[in-house]
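Fold this complex.
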Amino acid sequence: MRSAAALVLLIAATLAVVFGGRGAKASESSAYKIIVNPANPAGSLDRKFVEDAFLKKVTTWPDGSVIHPVDLPASSSVRRRFSEDVLERSVDGVRVYWQQRIFAGRDLPPPELENDAEVVKYVLKYDGAIGYVSEGSGSSPSKVVAVTR
Amino acid sequence: VACSIAAVALGPSEAAADAGDPSSPSAIQIHGFASQGAFVTTRNDYLVSGSTKGSFQLSEVGINFTDNITEKLRAGIQLFAQDFGINGNYGIEADWFYLDYRFADWLGFRAGRLKLPFGLYNEVNDVDAARVPILLPQSVYPLQNRQFLFAQTGFEIYGFARSSWAGALDYRLFAGTISLDPLALRQPGANYQAFIDVPYMTGGRVMWETPLDGLRLGGSLEALELDSTITNLMMKNLPSMGQVNDVAQLYVGSVEYAHDDLLLAAEYSRWHTRQTGDLVPPNESESERMYGMITYRVAHWLQPGAYYSLYFPYTKNRWGNDPTVRCESNVIISPKSACWQQDVALTLRFDVTPNWLIKVEGHFMDGTAAVSSPLKPGSPPTDPPKDWEALFAKTTVYF
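Structure:
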């Protein structure tokens, strides 16, 4: 059995080298901007606050209203860039975080919408919403906020 | 359970306009998973009877429903069935259910059957998709003690607060009780019947997210009391019926560091028990448990992991050198190797698709502590081999 386990490890290591790579890092073209509802008074947000909001560790804005984060699909390069920059973890890492929360009965992940236009629509619909879209997309009349570190 | 089901079924009252929109914050969400595993051990049966011949008794299936009734009030329920040794046999149970009201980020309140926040990973002990190993380190998360560690029925307060310079604190405090199945607690070879009442179970966990990104430190405590009415079926020199009182305190200290695709975790735990009663002489014991684990996402679809786990059932006799301290109850002669368990585990997790995974895992074991367990009825082995191995494979789909 020891040799069987060693063989499994060897095969996996070989596969990882041959087909490996965690996927290309998000490129400049997948730059993003963070948007909120126009009624939101925030002009800039601390990165940690945005991270806590998307992981639902904090659920309210400073004025007490409820935060409604919204995501792009897991396959989106814009989401990958946002996840690495702001959440400081990979999209896969975020998925595992939510599996732990979902099945322990703690919380649910933000909704995943198909594209930038859907995210803008969502942000305009809910006063407490926060989302991100690709840098070049039209996000008006939602409000773009800067992230400080 | 009825309150949670009703709350989920009735749905949100204030967001009726959003009904049917799955992205609405108030939409009912449904998630589920199904796992099937198989394993084989060499020389010693482990976790289930007959595992040296191979076993498929490693199945779990669960589905949960969560409803944000209002922006601050939420209800949820998870139905769960498993087949694992003498546990489950696919009987459906309410895994957890709750009503949750969040007054503020630093103060929330829950009532229902709630998973226990004990250490880093106790809450995902049944959730294969939420971790790399198939078996979490059995020193700190023993499946044979699942009834004590899984969930309590009662209340919990919780909260999260971040400081601009000191990181963040995440706390959870709980109090309630548990229902125990005496059959699932009875040591192999023991001959008695018991009715067990748990007057209280209480404890909590505090996790500190340090200012160093990705580093978390934490401590957990669980305290409980068991009042058992026992009918003695074996010992002629003892009363036929009596009371036994057990008081236990479980502690664990945790550290976890996550950076990019690397995860390092280590935990150290002690469990202290004191037993008094008509049928047993007063006694106290303490066990010691620890592990270190590393996982790394090599590729999008591949995540290897490894851990070293160490368990001493009795701190007074860590390596079995004191013949006056038996490391296994309910046997005439306790083998020296029953005083410890060392486990080196290697895991490969393959994420075939975003909703389907396969794992394989090898264990290289030294020592036979926990080889004899309530999960495996029948007479305990008299002279189990000290060195042995286990190989697991498991697949899970989830959504």
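The two ends of chain A are 51 Å apart (CA to CA).
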